[in-house]
User: Fold this.
Amino acid sequence: MSDLGWLDVPSEPRRADAAEAARLRAAAEGRGWRCVRIQGSAARDKDSLLEAFAKVVPLPDYFGRNWDALEECLREPDILGKGPGCLIEVSDFPLVERGLGAEAPAFLSLMTDLSAQWSRETPPFAFKVLLVNEL
Assistant:
């Protein structure tokens, strides 16, 4: 699948280098998507990753800072924006993944599930996650 084709189908988070991430981000922005970036250097464990989400996505004050609460919040249309899609880019993902340790599969599964769930909405909404290796 070409780089841009990935934007069109529900999928797992995509691992990308910085150049590929820039192409995908530009394409998503060109489609009117909301694009947010989580700094991996500031999100090196579960707690700091959840905190980073709370900073770049307007999560409500009641956000419980756990995977279930993140899923609940990211399923709310008003939180992700009014456009046709949202691209979440996690920079320096190898650092994040190493810091998450045994929690990494739960995070990846959650992002995959959200992509599938949003694609079934009417109208469909694209939810994509880029895991960028900039090291």
Observations:
- The chain has a mean pLDDT of 92.
- The helical segments are 18-30, 46-56, 67-74, 77-80, 93-100, 104-119.
- The chain is about 45% helix and 15% strand.
